[in-house]
């Protein structure tokens, strides 16, 4: 299990439009086995997870370690899972998360929670963030070496940099 990849997928899940199955299928890009099994009930369950994960990312952004840990522990308690070593690629042994029900939603919930919990334990709760752009509230995982990420994407970062440049230029002209 690549915990950073699963944690980043949890942030992407938080940002995904899951109002319809098509949104879930788009989120599951590259995972045809899950895409073909996605149903409305999965969307409903994952929208609930989105509402539960948002305060955890907000707490990570605020540096509130206690809230991140208690929020994740609460979700881990409500969503028990069984990690298992997968050997479908013998050169790349890794963990898969089994949940019992086998639904797409439970698979995604298990991966998300185990990925986030491992990331928080290994790298810290402050690696969960919310975009600093005034026009955006997307969540992200900061896997940068120096904990410097402030934006969810290059697009938001570029917009903020251009806006700051224009503001400086305008201030210089007016001065």
Write a concise synopsis of the structure shown.
This is CGNR zinc finger domain-containing protein. With 175 residues, this protein is mainly alpha-helical. The protein has helices at 3-15, 21-27, 32-35, 40-62, 65-78, 104-123, 154-174; strands spanning 82-86, 94-98, 128-130, 139-141.
Description:
- Residues 127-169 form the Zinc finger CGNR domain.
- This is CGNR zinc finger domain-containing protein.
- Strand 1 (82-86) and strand 2 (94-98) form a beta hairpin.
- The protein is globular, with a radius of gyration of 18 Å.
- The strands form two sheets. A two-stranded antiparallel sheet has the order 1-2.
- It has one domain: Orthogonal Bundle (Jann2411-like fold), CATH 1.10.3300.10.
- The chain has helices spanning 3-15, 21-27, 32-35, 40-62, 65-78, 104-123, 154-174; strands at 82-86, 94-98, 128-130, 139-141.
- With 175 residues, it is mostly helical.
- Helices cover 58% and strands 9% of the residues.
- The model has no long low-confidence stretch (mean pLDDT 90).
- The longest helix has 23 residues, at 40-62.
In the residues, how many domains can be counted? 1
Low-confidence stretches: none
Name of the CATH superfamily: Jann2411-like domain
Structural class given helices, strands, pairing?
A: mainly alpha
**CATH level-two architecture:** Orthogonal Bundle
Using the CA coordinates, give the radius of gyration.
18 Å
* Strand arrangement, major sheet: 1-2
**CATH class categorisation:** Mainly Alpha
| Relative strand content | 5-15%
Overall geometry comes to globular
CATH domain topology: Jann2411-like fold
- The termini sit apart by 55 Å
pLDDT averaged over residues:
90
Major sheet: size, sense and barrel closure? 2 strands, antiparallel
Helix share of residues? 55-70%
Compressed to H and E, one letter per element, the order equals HHHHHEEHEEH
Please tally the β strands and state the result.
4
Q: What is the count of DSSP helices, taking H or I runs of 4+ residues?
A: 7
